[in-house]
Amino acid sequence: MYHKITSCRACGLGKAQIPTLKQSVAAGPQSGDTSLLPVFDLGLQPLANDFVQAGEEQSGFAPLKVMLCPRCNMAQLSVVVRPDILYRHYSYVTSPSQTMRDHFQTLVDMIPLASHKPRLLEIGSNDGRFLDFLQNEKGWQVCGIDPAKNLCETAHRRGLKVYCDFFGADAAARIQEFEPEIIMARHVFCHCPDWKDFVRGLEILSPPETLICIEVPYVADLLSKGEFDTVYHEHLSYFSIKPMSHLLMETSLRLHKVVPLSIHGGALLVMLRHRDSQTSPDKSVSQYLNAEDFGHEAWRKFSTDSFRKIGALRHFVDTAVQNGKRVVGYGASAKSTVWINACGFTRNQISFITDTTPEKLYRNSPGTNIPIVDEGALLRELPDYAVCFAWNYIDEILQKEKAYLDRGGKFIVPHPDIKVLP
Ligand code: TMP
User: pTM for this structure?
Assistant: First the structure.
């Protein structure tokens, strides 16, 4: 189901290298000590989007441990779960929320346009929601690629041209005829086990002026805001700009610009261009490179803080249940799987979780027997508390669920620190 990773994905530290006798003697007795450091460990965990029906078998459990590279500060999981298990059928769909629509517009505003009807390729196009926005509301020419059959079918029904495959050099060769001017990869690079093949694919599609936009969760937000619930098996790498520059060293691509984004709790839009591009790199690249310091100490603090937050939610929910209160979950996000399993919740604590995604309904929250139900259940059942696992949409949810709040319902927001609303 998974294999172990022992070397740094960005700079190669830890790759088996057999030194010459002369090198070993010169380096001395410490020369073999090139190992990655464990910095955050949630033990064995289920796959965050493995929503199965009662009675159906889950894919299984795998270690969830982050390793830090002491040379380039790349943080990555200690194992890679087989991509076909994770992605051939995928239940995460791009949110239809207003927050996400606003984000699409933000991205459009950031992209410098060379033409009126630009050609954009989206890697990891999911159910095609972003491409649909570009094609039908902005008049762009678009094309996508995604490995999930179920999501490609939805994108096809939207009238979009989407290839159903993992992106890499082979897939890029097939897409070449589209000649994209812009390549967008939103929250997909951190899922990628083989960057070399992914970047090779980008190179194939990148004549000098192609703009490549990679949206990644930023490790600075993860660490400073304690967002441990974005650590799950799909997120193999936790990015900062320094390891990314290491990764690109041996390629024809260069960092061009770095822009902070607020989506999903904090992300970066990292723009790349070919090294022969006439457009000079933005000063943001060197600013990020000079400011970054995400070493062992930052991760140690993050780990301590995360376990404190897990303990706080567990204590709150346990106490509420012991006092006869009914607690449910709101939003069966991948984040919810991390929280629920880290807290060790079952149906005894969380009666059900509401969610708007049809693919998740009437399935169980991964690793537990907690059922996912439609969002109407909140008003029908009127639980005392709803733990908002989709905390990144909390403002929108408070507006939407006014009727629940008016009838005395309360939201527990577990992040950044547990609070009860109203
Ligand atoms: P995401 O943070 O990965 O986008 O996941 C959010 C999840 O929360 C997704 O499964 C949809 C769900 N959700 C609701 O059920 N109701 C809502 O109002 C919102 C905004 C999200």
Answer: 0.87
